[in-house]
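PT: before anyone asks, these are the final sequences, not the draft ones from last week. 309 residues across everything. Please model them as a single complex and drop the result in this thread when it's through.
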Amino acid sequence: MHIPDGFLNGATIGVTYAVSAGGVAFATRAAGKKLGEKHVPLMGIMAAFIFAAQMLNFPIAGGTSGHLLGAALAAILLGPWGGLLVMACVLLVQSLIFQDGGLLALGANVLNMGVAGCWIGFGVYTLTTKVIGVDRRGTLIGGFAAGWASVFIASVLCSFELAGSDASPLGVALPAMAGVHALIGLVEGLITAVVLGFVWATRSDLLQIEKV
Amino acid sequence: MKWVRWWHVALLLCILVAFLSPLASSSPDGLEKVAEDKGFIEKAKDSPYEIIADYVFPGVHNESVATILAGLVGTVGIFALVYGGARVLRAFRREGA
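LR: through. Structure below.
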């Protein structure tokens, strides 16, 4: 869902950069206060995993592919601000080095896949585990729901940015983006749940670290 | 084996994932497909420069090898960047406390 340059107009670029920069600044402050010994390697691993997994596009209906965002997974393990820092670093490197996602569109990409992805993912996970319980079942179901919601909401935000930039009217972009990403989100949810299940089975203490 | 920490194994798993990258679907992703279908894909502008554009390592003829190389450089590089950044943030926290 990396927006290339050319899709967004100046106003959208300005607003999305401002919101994302504010979010990243706040996340850096929060991380500076709360980061513990275990957070350091976990942040590195989340970034490496998300980068590698994002390269693995999987086919979805009708000649379309999707790939993991990883925002929900990072936010569940690290907390929303820690997750945002990881996502922002991945998106920055992808844009600067791999020409994936435009330089001017970086603010929008961080807003959709970082700020919104992490906060929606973290919120849905927290709510689900409150209802079902923080046992294995609650963790897996919460992870699936969080993964799906993070992709879906990111795609909705993306279509508002496209519409606000006159790239495509909302009536066209919104149903198309939300429709295909409702499907891609199912795979996101599945991968999120599988990874959480793996962490639960191998290093369940990592699920207990303080959320940043 | 006391020096083997959990994240050494985890990083190795990430590197294994990077080795799978040539298997990725080459179909357009959700946003690209919508942009093609709804007729605004031609608005996309290429980057003013290319380093490892489209996850293909430059100068390598075999496409699978070029993709794996790009994946390895990115996976290890971004681990180092974020691990180092997090250590610096934590060092600041200790100093401030």
